[in-house]
From TrEMBL:
Heme binds at C462. Belongs to the cytochrome P450 family. Its cofactor is heme. GO terms for cellular component: cytoplasm. This is CLUMA_CG019030, isoform A. The gene is putative Cytochrome P450 18a1. GO terms for molecular function: heme binding; iron ion binding; oxidoreductase activity, acting on paired donors, with incorporation or reduction of molecular oxygen, reduced flavin or flavoprotein as one donor, and incorporation of one atom of oxygen; steroid hydroxylase activity. InterPro entries: Cyt_P450, Cyt_P450_CS, Cyt_P450_E_grp-I, Cyt_P450_sf, Cytochrome_P450_fam2. It comes from Clunio marinus.
Length: 534
C-alpha cells in the first residue's frame, strides 16, 4: 500500500469515527433534552397540584395501600392541609377535607365522572353507580322520579306503599326478636334480612326469610365479594398485578358470583314480564319494563340506555341499588345499637320521648318523626360519629379543573374526606364526644349544619337519603320502643373502631333484649304483605 492510500485510509477512519462520535453525542443530547423537557413538565404540573407527600416511584404512598385509607388520609390532612394530593401506585388522588371546598368542587358537572379503572370496566359501563355521562344522567332522573312515586319522599307522605312495606318489615323484625329474649342475640342477621326485604321489595317485590337458602346464598356472595375485592383492589393502583395467579382466580370468582346474582335477577324479570300490567306498576322492575314498552312504541328502543342491552342494564341497576341500600342501613342500625349500649342516658332520653310522643299503645310511624327531635338527633349524631361511607364513591373529573388556584387534572380520583369533616374541632365542639343535642337548636328542633354530609354532596350525592332517613327512624325507634337492650353479663362494651368494607362496620357483638310491653299491640300489627301484592 502506498503512503498516499495509507494517509487516505487513516483520514477516512478518523472521519467515520468522528461522525459516529458526533451522532452519539447528538443522540445523547436529544435524549437529555427530551428527558429534561419531560421532567420540567412533570415539575410544573406537580407545582400546580395541591401540596402533598412525594411517595416512592412507582409505589406512591405505600401506607395508603392498606385497608384503613380514611384514617391515613386524615393523618395526611393534618400535615398537608384540607386540600392535598398524593399517589397510590401511579394513581393521583386529590383529597379534600374542607366542607366548603368539597361543596364547591362537587357542584361541577365534570365531577360527576367516574374513574376509568380496570375493576369498573368489568361492569361493562352499565348500571348506575359506576356509569357517568348521559347514561348516568338519564338513569338518575328516571330513578329519582320512580322512587319518589313509590313513596321515597317525606313531603305530603301519608301511608305510601314504601311506608307500608317498611312498617311490615319492622313488625316482622320486632316479632322475630320477641322470640329471642331468653338468650343473647347477634342482631346483624336480623337487621340484614329486614333491610334486604325493604330494598328487594321496592326493586322487585321479593322478600326473604332468614333461613331462605336464596337469602343465605345472596349474603354469602356479598360477603365473599367483599373479601375478593379486598384481595384485588391493588389492580387499580398497579395494573400489572392483574396477571398474578391469585388475582386471576379472584377476578374469575367475582365474575362467577355476578353471573349467579344476574341469573336470579333474570328469573325475577321473566316473572315480571309474565304478569306485567301497565296499569299496575308494582316496583322498579315494572317501571323499567314500562320504559322499554314506551321506547318500543316510539321506535327509540335502540337509543334506550345508550344502546346497552336492556335487561343487562336493569340487572346491574338492581345490583347497584341493592348493594347501596342494604349494607348502609344495616350498618347504621348496628352502630345505633353500639352507641345506645355505650350511652345509657341518651338511650333513656330516646325511650322517654317515644313514650311521650308515640305512647305505649302503638308503634312509631313516619308521621311521628317531626315530633321526635331527640330520637332524630340521636340518629344524626351516630351518623356523624360513625361516618360509614367516609370516602364517598370515587369521582373523577372529565376535564381538567381548578380549585383554590390548584389543578385538579382530568382522570384523577377526587375524594371528599367525610370522616374528617365530621370530626373537625373547628366545626364541632368536642367532636369526639357523643352529644345528640348538638343537632338541636334553641327551640329544641332538629337543625343540620351544612357541614353534616353523611350522604355526600352535589350532583352525585346519595340517591337513597330519604329512604335512609325513613328506614333508620322506623327501625331504630321501634327497637327502642319495644326493647330494653343491654350487654350480656361480663361482656365488654363494643368498640367504636370500625372495620373497613363496603361500609365502616362495627365489630361483632351480642345483646340481651328485654321486652317493653305495649298496651294494645295487637291492633297495630298489620298482617305481613309483600309490596308487590298490593
Ligand atoms: C345511612 C345510609 C346511607 C349512607 C350514609 C349513604 C351514603 C352515601 C354516600 C356518601 C354516597 C356517595 C356520594 C358521592 O359520591 O358523592 C352514596 C351514593 C349512593 N347511594 Fe347512599 N347512603 C345510604 C343509604 C342509601 C340507600 C338506602 C340507598 C338506596 C336506594 C342508597 C343509594 C345510593 C346510590 C344509588 C348512590 C350513588 C349515586 C350516584 O352514583 O349518582 N344509599 N350514598
Amino acid at each position: 500500500m502506498s503512503l498516499d492510500s495509507m494517509i487516505l485510509n487513516f483520514l477516512k477512519r478518523e472521519l467515520e469515527q468522528d461522525i459516529s462520535k458526533t451522532l452519539f453525542v447528538f443522540c445523547c443530547a436529544l435524549v437529555l433534552i427530551i428527558l429534561a423537557q419531560y421532567l420540567i413538565k412533570v415539575i410544573i404540573e406537580n407545582l400546580r397540584l395541591p401540596p402533598g407527600p412525594y411517595g416512592i416511584f412507582p409505589f406512591g404512598i405505600l401506607k395508603l395501600i392498606g385497608a384503613e385509607k380514611h384514617k391515613s388520609f386524615m393523618k395526611l390532612a393534618a400535615t398537608y392541609g384540607p386540600l392535598f394530593s398524593c399517589k397510590l401506585g401511579q394513581q393521583l388522588h386529590i383529597v379534600i377535607s374542607d366542607y366548603k371546598l368539597i361543596r364547591e368542587i362537587f357542584k361541577k358537572e365534570s365531577l360527576t365522572g367516574r374513574p376509568r379503572t380496570l375493576l369498573c370496566s368489568e361492569l361493562n359501563g352499565i348500571g348506575f353507580i359506576n356509569t357517568d355521562g348521559k347514561l348516568w344522567k338519564d338513569q338518575r332522573r328516571f330513578l329519582h322520579e320512580k322512587l319518589r312515586r313509590f313513596g321515597m319522599t317525606l313531603v305530603g307522605s301519608k301511608n305510601t306503599k314504601l311506608q307500608n312495606l317498611i312498617t311490615n318489615e319492622v313488625d316482622d323484625l320486632i316479632s322475630n326478636l320477641s322470640n329471642e329474649t331468653s338468650h343473647t342475640v347477634d342482631l346483624d342477621p336480623f337487621f340484614a334480612v329486614s333491610v334486604s326485604n325493604v330494598i328487594c321489595n321496592l326493586l322487585m317485590s321479593v322478600r326473604f326469610t332468614r333461613d331462605d337458602p336464596k337469602f343465605i346464598k345472596f349474603n354469602r356472595m356479598i360477603d365473599e365479594g367483599m373479601i375478593l375485592f379486598g384481595q384485588i383492589y391493588t389492580i387499580d393502583y398497579f395494573p400489572v398485578t392483574q396477571y398474578l395467579p391469585g388475582m386471576k382466580s379472584a377476578r374469575n370468582q367475582i365474575a362467577e358470583n355476578r353471573r349467579e346474582m344476574f341469573s336470579f335477577y333474570k328469573e325475577v324479570i321473566e316473572d315480571h314480564k309474565k304478569n306485567f300490567d301497565s296499569n299496575n306498576i308494582r316496583d322498579l322492575v315494572d317501571a323499567y319494563l314500562m320504559e322499554i314498552e314506551t321506547a318500543k312504541l316510539n321506535n327509540s328502543e335502540h337509543e334506550l340506555f345508550e344502546g346497552n342491552k336492556h335487561e343487562e342494564q336493569i340487572m346491574q341497576v338492581i345490583g347497584d341499588l341493592f348493594s347501596a341500600g342494604m349494607e348502609t342501613i344495616k350498618t347504621t342500625l348496628l352502630w345505633l345499637i353500639v352507641y345506645m349500649l355505650r350511652n345509657p342516658d341518651a338511650r333513656k332520653q330516646v325511650q322517654d320521648e317515644l313514650d311521650d310522643v308515640v305512647g305505649r299503645n302503638r308503634m312509631p310511624k313516619v308521621s311521628d318523626l317531626p315530633f321526635c327531635p331527640k330520637t332524630e338527633s340521636t340518629i344524626l349524631e351516630v351518623m356523624r360519629m360513625s361516618s360509614i361511607v367516609p370516602l364517598a364513591t370515587t369521582h373523577s373529573p372529565m376535564i381538567d379543573e381548578e380549585i383554590n388556584g390548584y389543578k385538579i387534572p382530568a382522570g384523577c380520583h377526587v375524594i371528599p374526606l367525610i370522616n374528617s369533616v365530621h370530626m373537625d374541632p373547628t366545626l364541632w365542639d368536642k367532636p369526639e364526644e357523643f352529644r345528640p343535642s348538638r343537632f338541636l337548636n334553641a327551640e329544641g328542633k332538629v337543625e343540620k349544619p351544612e357541614y353534616f354530609i353523611p350522604f355526600g354532596v352535589g350532583r352525585r350525592m346519595c340517591l337513597g337519603d330519604v329512604l335512609a332517613r325513613i328506614e333508620s327512624f322506623l327501625f331504630f325507634s321501634s327497637m327502642m320502643h319495644r326493647f330494653d337492650i343491654s350487654l350480656p353479663t361480663g361482656a365488654e362494651l363494643p368498640s367504636l373502631n370500625g372495620n373497613p368494607g363496603v361500609t365502616i362496620y362495627p365489630n361483632k357483638f351480642s345483646v340481651c333484649l328485654k321486652e317493653r310491653e305495649l298496651e294494645a299491640l295487637s291492633d297495630e300489627l298489620a298482617p305481613l304483605r309483600a309490596f308487590g301484592a298490593n
